[in-house]
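dumping this here so i dont lose it
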């Protein structure tokens, strides 16, 4: 592991009350000793004395000043927090300088630390060091990003459960079962003349299914049912040009985000915004109107709209309620395919009842709402219908703390497949040498989840998603 001393600004860019510069590494105390003056400065007295910060107590805050002794300049009045190894986030010596959060002063303090031997940290390097030092495992490290990016209380709850180690403990429990099974299989292979093949309890199909396969499937199902809590429920707003898609988008997010004009084809590129509905992030996409056109730019926008339809969890199909169902409405519905649909009958303020728009009997429309984007009516019901859809997506199950992310879920998918192969091998009395191959591969895959068996390229990819300073 790189033993250099790293430094980064740990607070967001811009002006504020407090700005934090974080330092971690073997030279952290030495560096701050070169730039920190403890206590008050005497008015008019020269700034000459440096502090020996090695004498300062761990987990204690000290008042003082950051000083450029070479140029005899006082940079800022600060608070200094020292956390000595191994009782720190990275298990190295860690120092935090709490300065006033102005862009100039924070940059000057950072430059001074770099000048005295610090190295600018890479994205996620502090957390990567916490992982490499064994303080946290890989799933706990990934939970740090989930906490930072959480948009709702439910997402935060799942992330904090991961950082406590609940998910890691569940994975390690299953991994230990595979280790025990591997030992039983190796014993049968090495001492086949002394040990009965059926003597190992984990080599029984029913025992293996209950202790392993069902638990792995449960974790995969938890992702399938509840990942929208963290990742968001994707909703595309589609329909013909000039039916009010952008106006509906603006009403849903309660701001003028999409440009609205009376001219068809105003929206060319997709516009995405997130709105919280029942504590779930709903990712709304306003797309170009779908219709036949010779305009090359419009064609690109329509192609992107169709791509968003394929990637969405739900389609809001907007129609002009003052018009009859047209051939282009039928074409749009065909592009929606088997996606769940909420039909929005917009411009209801202009329509006479009963509405002119009568969908074909072949359309499987079970959810519909009449709206007026102009008068802001019908949108409470629309939000309720969207909520019904993602509650159905989650099968109404309560949020389980063991919620894998996509990387973990893909690894669990492979584990489930191997578990089925192992079950089949046990059932068909296949040679244990063949079963052992699948057992060892599953152990390695579970190790990739917690970080016990993971390559440097995977680590680089994971920690590149972090911000600098974390």
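and the seq i came up w/
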């Amino acid at each position: 592991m790189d033993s250099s001393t790293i430094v980064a600004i740990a607070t967001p860019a811009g002006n504020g009350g407090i700005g934090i510069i974080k330092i971690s590494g073997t030279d952290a105390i030495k560096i701050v000793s070169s730039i920190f003056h403890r206590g008050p400065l005497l008015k008019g007295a020269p700034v000459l004395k440096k502090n020996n910060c090695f004498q300062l107590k761990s987990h204690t805050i000290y008042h003082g000043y950051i000083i450029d002794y070479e140029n005899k300049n006082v940079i800022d009045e600060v608070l200094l927090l020292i956390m000595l190894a191994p009782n720190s986030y990275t298990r190295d010596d860690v120092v935090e300088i709490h300065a006033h959060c102005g862009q100039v002063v924070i940059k000057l303090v950072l430059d001074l630390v770099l000048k005295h031997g610090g190295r600018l940290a890479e994205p996620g390097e502090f957390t990567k060091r916490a992982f490499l030092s064994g303080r946290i495992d890989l799933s706990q490290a990934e939970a740090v990003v989930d906490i930072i990016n959480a948009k709702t209380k439910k997402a935060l709850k799942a992330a904090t459960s991961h950082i406590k180690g609940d998910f890691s403990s569940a994975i390690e429990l299953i991994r230990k079962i595979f280790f025990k099974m591997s030992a039983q299989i190796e014993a049968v292979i090495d001492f086949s003349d002394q040990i009965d093949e059926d003597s190992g309890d984990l080599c029984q199909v029913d025992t293996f299914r209950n202790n392993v396969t069902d638990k792995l499937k449960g974790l995969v199902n938890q992702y399938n049912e509840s990942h929208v809590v963290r990742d968001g429920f994707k909703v595309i707003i589609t329909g013909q040009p000039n039916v009010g898609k952008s106006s509906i988008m603006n009403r849903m997010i309660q701001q003028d985000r999409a440009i609205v004009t009376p001219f068809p084809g105003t929206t060319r590129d997709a516009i995405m915004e997130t709105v919280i509905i029942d504590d779930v992030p709903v990712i709304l996409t306003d797309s170009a109107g779908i219709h036949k056109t010779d305009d090359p730019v419009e064609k690109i926008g329509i192609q992107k709209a169709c791509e968003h339809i394929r990637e969405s969890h739900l389609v809001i199909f907007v129609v002009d309620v003052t018009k009859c169902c047209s051939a282009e409405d039928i074409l749009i519905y065909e592009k929606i395919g088997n996606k769940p649909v909420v039909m929005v009958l917009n411009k209801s303020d202009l329509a006479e009842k009963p509405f002119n728009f009568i969908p074909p009997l072949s359309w499987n429309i079970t959810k519909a709402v009449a709206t007026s984007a102009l008068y802001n009516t019908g949108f409470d019901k629309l939000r309720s219908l969207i909520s019904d859809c993602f509650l159905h997506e989650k099968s109404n199950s309560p949020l389980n703390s063991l919620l894998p992310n996509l990387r973990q879920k893909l690894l669990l998918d492979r584990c489930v497949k191997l578990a089925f192969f192992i079950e089949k091998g046990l059932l068909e009395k296949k040679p244990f040498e063949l079963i052992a191959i699948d057992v060892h591969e599953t152990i390695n895959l579970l190790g990739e989840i917690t970080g016990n068996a993971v390559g440097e390229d995977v680590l680089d990819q994971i920690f590149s998603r972090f911000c600098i300073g974390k």
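The longest helix spans residues 166-190.
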